[in-house]
Amino acid sequence: MAVKSQDDTVTQENKPKMRYKVWAEIYNGDTIASIWTPEVYVIGEYTYKTKKQFEAWTRTKYNVKKVYPYAIIAAAKLKEYDLILSKLPTEKAKKNYMKVIEKELKHEFENELKNLTVTQGRILLKLIDRETGKTSFEIVKQMRGGFQAFMWQSVARIFGSNMKSEYDPEGEDLMIERAIKLVEEGQF
Fold first, then answer.
1. CA separation for the pair 179, 29 (Å, rounded)
2. Cα separation, 107 vs 125, whole angstroms
3. What is residue 72's predicted lDDT score, i.e. its pLDDT?
Protein backbone atom coordinates (compact mmCIF):
# COMPACT_ATOMS: atom_id res chain seq x y z
CA MET A 1 0.00 0.00 0.00
CA ALA A 2 1.37 3.41 -0.93
CA VAL A 3 2.17 5.96 1.71
CA LYS A 4 0.48 9.29 1.04
CA SER A 5 2.00 12.66 1.69
CA GLN A 6 0.23 15.48 3.50
CA ASP A 7 -1.71 16.47 0.39
CA ASP A 8 -2.84 12.83 -0.23
CA THR A 9 -0.81 12.35 -3.42
CA VAL A 10 1.67 9.55 -4.02
CA THR A 11 5.11 10.94 -4.75
CA GLN A 12 8.12 9.22 -6.32
CA GLU A 13 9.85 8.88 -2.93
CA ASN A 14 7.00 7.14 -1.16
CA LYS A 15 5.95 4.73 -3.93
CA PRO A 16 5.89 1.09 -2.91
CA LYS A 17 9.06 -0.76 -3.93
CA MET A 18 7.52 -4.20 -4.62
CA ARG A 19 4.52 -4.92 -6.75
CA TYR A 20 2.57 -8.12 -7.09
CA LYS A 21 0.12 -9.17 -9.73
CA VAL A 22 -3.06 -10.19 -8.03
CA TRP A 23 -6.03 -11.78 -9.70
CA ALA A 24 -9.46 -12.61 -8.43
CA GLU A 25 -11.02 -16.03 -8.09
CA ILE A 26 -14.65 -16.69 -7.36
CA TYR A 27 -15.18 -19.31 -4.66
CA ASN A 28 -18.72 -20.13 -3.48
CA GLY A 29 -19.94 -16.80 -4.79
CA ASP A 30 -17.24 -14.78 -3.00
CA THR A 31 -14.47 -12.97 -4.85
CA ILE A 32 -11.08 -13.72 -3.33
CA ALA A 33 -7.77 -12.08 -4.21
CA SER A 34 -5.12 -14.61 -5.27
CA ILE A 35 -1.38 -14.34 -5.70
CA TRP A 36 1.21 -16.79 -7.03
CA THR A 37 4.02 -17.77 -4.69
CA PRO A 38 6.98 -20.03 -5.46
CA GLU A 39 6.95 -23.62 -4.27
CA VAL A 40 8.27 -24.06 -0.75
CA TYR A 41 9.64 -27.27 0.72
CA VAL A 42 9.31 -27.81 4.42
CA ILE A 43 11.55 -30.51 5.77
CA GLY A 44 11.09 -31.10 9.45
CA GLU A 45 13.86 -32.03 11.78
CA TYR A 46 14.27 -35.74 11.90
CA THR A 47 14.91 -37.44 15.20
CA TYR A 48 17.73 -39.90 14.77
CA LYS A 49 17.48 -43.15 16.68
CA THR A 50 21.22 -43.67 16.79
CA LYS A 51 24.37 -41.66 16.41
CA LYS A 52 25.20 -43.79 13.37
CA GLN A 53 22.02 -42.58 11.59
CA PHE A 54 22.91 -38.97 12.31
CA GLU A 55 26.44 -39.47 10.99
CA ALA A 56 25.09 -41.13 7.81
CA TRP A 57 22.78 -38.14 7.22
CA THR A 58 25.61 -35.67 7.83
CA ARG A 59 27.89 -37.53 5.38
CA THR A 60 25.13 -37.68 2.76
CA LYS A 61 24.50 -33.93 3.01
CA TYR A 62 28.22 -33.20 2.67
CA ASN A 63 28.63 -35.58 -0.29
CA VAL A 64 25.58 -34.25 -2.12
CA LYS A 65 26.72 -30.66 -1.65
CA LYS A 66 30.10 -31.59 -3.12
CA VAL A 67 28.90 -33.52 -6.21
CA TYR A 68 25.55 -31.88 -7.06
CA PRO A 69 27.17 -29.04 -9.04
CA TYR A 70 28.96 -31.62 -11.21
CA ALA A 71 25.64 -33.34 -11.97
CA ILE A 72 24.10 -30.02 -13.03
CA ILE A 73 27.08 -29.28 -15.28
CA ALA A 74 26.97 -32.81 -16.73
CA ALA A 75 23.28 -32.47 -17.61
CA ALA A 76 23.83 -29.09 -19.29
CA LYS A 77 26.87 -30.29 -21.24
CA LEU A 78 25.13 -33.49 -22.30
CA LYS A 79 22.20 -31.51 -23.66
CA GLU A 80 24.62 -29.21 -25.53
CA TYR A 81 26.60 -32.15 -26.96
CA ASP A 82 23.46 -34.01 -28.04
CA LEU A 83 22.31 -30.96 -29.96
CA ILE A 84 25.67 -30.49 -31.69
CA LEU A 85 26.06 -34.21 -32.47
CA SER A 86 22.60 -34.36 -34.02
CA LYS A 87 23.66 -31.66 -36.51
CA LEU A 88 26.91 -33.33 -37.58
CA PRO A 89 26.53 -35.04 -40.97
CA THR A 90 28.79 -38.10 -40.72
CA GLU A 91 29.90 -40.68 -38.17
CA LYS A 92 33.51 -39.62 -38.72
CA ALA A 93 32.67 -36.00 -37.86
CA LYS A 94 30.84 -37.19 -34.73
CA LYS A 95 33.82 -39.31 -33.62
CA ASN A 96 36.23 -36.41 -34.18
CA TYR A 97 33.99 -34.08 -32.21
CA MET A 98 33.74 -36.63 -29.38
CA LYS A 99 37.55 -36.79 -29.18
CA VAL A 100 37.73 -33.00 -28.91
CA ILE A 101 35.12 -32.71 -26.18
CA GLU A 102 36.63 -35.65 -24.28
CA LYS A 103 39.96 -33.81 -24.15
CA GLU A 104 38.22 -30.62 -23.03
CA LEU A 105 36.30 -32.42 -20.30
CA LYS A 106 39.42 -34.20 -19.06
CA HIS A 107 41.32 -30.93 -18.93
CA GLU A 108 38.49 -29.17 -17.10
CA PHE A 109 37.31 -31.83 -14.62
CA GLU A 110 39.80 -34.69 -14.36
CA ASN A 111 41.72 -33.47 -11.31
CA GLU A 112 38.57 -32.55 -9.38
CA LEU A 113 36.78 -35.82 -10.14
CA LYS A 114 39.81 -37.92 -9.29
CA ASN A 115 39.62 -36.57 -5.74
CA LEU A 116 36.07 -37.83 -5.18
CA THR A 117 35.55 -40.73 -2.81
CA VAL A 118 33.85 -43.92 -3.97
CA THR A 119 30.67 -42.88 -2.14
CA GLN A 120 30.72 -39.46 -3.78
CA GLY A 121 31.16 -41.18 -7.15
CA ARG A 122 28.12 -43.37 -6.50
CA ILE A 123 26.06 -40.33 -5.54
CA LEU A 124 27.27 -38.49 -8.65
CA LEU A 125 26.11 -41.40 -10.86
CA LYS A 126 22.68 -41.24 -9.20
CA LEU A 127 22.47 -37.47 -9.57
CA ILE A 128 23.43 -37.60 -13.24
CA ASP A 129 20.52 -40.00 -13.75
CA ARG A 130 18.27 -37.62 -11.79
CA GLU A 131 19.27 -34.60 -13.87
CA THR A 132 19.39 -36.23 -17.33
CA GLY A 133 16.87 -39.04 -17.10
CA LYS A 134 19.55 -41.43 -18.38
CA THR A 135 21.78 -43.77 -16.43
CA SER A 136 25.53 -43.28 -16.74
CA PHE A 137 25.70 -46.57 -18.61
CA GLU A 138 23.23 -45.29 -21.23
CA ILE A 139 25.19 -42.05 -21.62
CA VAL A 140 28.53 -43.81 -22.11
CA LYS A 141 26.91 -46.26 -24.52
CA GLN A 142 25.40 -43.42 -26.53
CA MET A 143 28.60 -41.36 -26.61
CA ARG A 144 31.35 -43.98 -26.72
CA GLY A 145 29.68 -47.21 -27.77
CA GLY A 146 28.56 -50.45 -26.19
CA PHE A 147 32.03 -51.93 -25.63
CA GLN A 148 33.28 -48.86 -23.73
CA ALA A 149 30.08 -48.83 -21.67
CA PHE A 150 30.61 -52.50 -20.82
CA MET A 151 34.23 -51.90 -19.82
CA TRP A 152 33.40 -48.94 -17.57
CA GLN A 153 30.50 -50.86 -16.03
CA SER A 154 32.95 -53.68 -15.23
CA VAL A 155 35.30 -51.22 -13.51
CA ALA A 156 32.39 -49.70 -11.58
CA ARG A 157 31.26 -53.16 -10.43
CA ILE A 158 34.76 -53.93 -9.15
CA PHE A 159 34.48 -50.89 -6.87
CA GLY A 160 30.97 -51.80 -5.75
CA SER A 161 29.09 -49.31 -7.96
CA ASN A 162 26.63 -49.84 -10.78
CA MET A 163 26.40 -47.48 -13.75
CA LYS A 164 22.97 -48.91 -14.56
CA SER A 165 21.43 -47.96 -11.21
CA GLU A 166 18.52 -45.57 -11.51
CA TYR A 167 17.65 -42.72 -9.18
CA ASP A 168 14.78 -43.53 -6.82
CA PRO A 169 13.81 -40.35 -4.90
CA GLU A 170 11.08 -42.04 -2.88
CA GLY A 171 12.92 -45.22 -1.98
CA GLU A 172 16.62 -45.96 -1.81
CA ASP A 173 17.66 -42.38 -2.57
CA LEU A 174 15.28 -40.54 -0.25
CA MET A 175 18.11 -39.19 1.90
CA ILE A 176 19.90 -37.88 -1.21
CA GLU A 177 16.71 -36.18 -2.41
CA ARG A 178 16.24 -34.45 0.94
CA ALA A 179 19.84 -33.26 0.88
CA ILE A 180 19.33 -31.88 -2.65
CA LYS A 181 16.28 -29.92 -1.50
CA LEU A 182 18.33 -28.40 1.34
CA VAL A 183 21.13 -27.48 -1.05
CA GLU A 184 18.71 -25.97 -3.60
CA GLU A 185 17.00 -23.94 -0.88
CA GLY A 186 20.34 -22.69 0.41
CA GLN A 187 19.77 -24.21 3.84
CA PHE A 188 22.98 -26.21 3.69
1. 43
2. 20
3. 92
